[in-house]
Amino acid sequence: MTLTSLLQIYVFVLAAFVGYYTISKVTPMLHTPLMSLTNAISGISLVGSLVLAGSQHDRVSTILGVIAVTAATINVVGGFMITDRILRMFRRDRTQAPK
Amino acid sequence: MKEQLIQVAYLAASILFILGLRGMTSPATARRGILLAEIGMLAAIVGTLLHHDIISYTWIIVGLLVGSAIGTAMALLTPMTAVPQRTAIALSFGALAATLVGIAHYHQHGGDLGRGTMAALGFEVMLGSITITGALMAFGKLQELVRSAPVTWPGQNVINGLLFLTTVALFAMVVVDPGNDTLFYAMIGLGLVIGVLVVLPIGGADMPVVIALLNSYCGLASAATGFVLGNNVLIIAGALDGASGFILSILMSKAMNRSFRNVLFGAFGGEAAAPAAAAATARSVRSTNAEDLAVLLGYARRVVVVPGYGMAVAQAQHEVREVMELVEKRGGEVVFAVHPVAGRMPGHMNVLLAEANVPYDRLKDMDEVNGEFERTDVVLVIGANDVVNPAARTDRSSPIYGMPILNADQARNIVVLKRSMGTGFAGIDNALFYNPKTQMYFGDAKKSLGALVAELRQLS
After folding, report:
1. Distance between CA atoms of B174 and B180, rounded to whole angstroms?
2. Which of A8, A90, B391, B445 would be B314's cystine partner, CB 3.0–4.6 Å?
3. φ, ψ (nearest 5 deg) of residue B414
4. Are A35 and B352 in contact (CB under 8 A)?
5. Quick check: A94 contacting B, CB < 8 Å?
């Protein structure tokens, strides 16, 4: 096992802990927008697919890359937008105007 | 210098994602949270576009534009009742992106890959391919394109188990011999088949667990992509996503009193208990009507509404909110007791109620509200059944024994709105209906509540 892969495991484990404790505190009321938010965040696979689509390595890579960019962008844009749309409906009291 | 700049952007993105998730602890901070996460995403994307391997932007722009158009349309056009379906298909897209990146990486490097990288890559495409079709099946079931009832056949678990073991064996062989692309593509093919076969036998009511579990797979596949590409922001975001799915799966399984194993291999529904049903015939229920119920609610000080999926199916959220407003106008207090599995995905019922303009401070989760039923005048159970079945507390022989329930039976008056005397999803009789404190109000929830609203208006 190389030093780099050890460091990667290090990062993964720490991030998983942070994720576990952060998400344990999320109110059950917001579990649906939580899922659409993590879904948008999972669109971070864009960072891999963008390079693939733009590096002109070979035709197969470019095609796979463009499909991946499209799929990940659907998640990023769609995920953030629907999360916001859901959250806008959560209002403290009906007498207060939605912000 | 450019490389450093990219890394700084990725670090900023990772921090902003975590802060964004932290915002979800309360509806008051949640929208600011997504703004932070959005800025993080933008930073990561802009950073990536600086990458020195990128020569042409043409195809990147095409992908970004097409993806944005589809994503926007889906986000704006999806009705709130269909959010579980959107989530399922989005998980499929997420897994597809991760899997394709993995395949392209293999296509470019193949036999030159070290064992460690190959293991991460194999893990990525194996989990990814299972999630692609598994989430598509979940989408089909939720959208009712595929029969949502469990589909079973003889020897199902044995066949699925063998297929899974074969896939794992292929994975191991690819790690040993990274150059063998037949094995690699066979593994992906089998993964796609397994995704279909594993979700097919799972019933519609178990979807909250399935979606949460697929969410966690999708996250792990992203994290594995990060290991392959040596990209920390992918590892971190994938770990966060995976942790979120994992926590939600555990919460959902607990709320349904089921183990993962039971959800995945149990194909609930067929084996429902017969003994409880036999006792039911002799007992009688008391029924009520809109007029009497209006009087009961009109003079109640404290009312708890227990909404179930039946309420959402009947689209009765708005009528429920009107009842809430009328009772509040007369000085009563109304809260909603939301069971974790009310709905088709975690938290779904809260979204449906919020959409119907129920303020979120009236939405209480099970732990908050369960101690308060004793001092509640009227509990209004609308289209819910198993989640208020006292057998879960008292009857050791019941299949739902041990499941956490809402203690509706402790209220002074119990009113159950129900289409008919049919049993719930678990197919078991509910002693709550025969409780002397209980009145049944039969009919379609939307119409029944409409009549109740009219009667309540006339009261004063």
Report:
1. 7
2. B445
3. -120, 130
4. no
5. yes
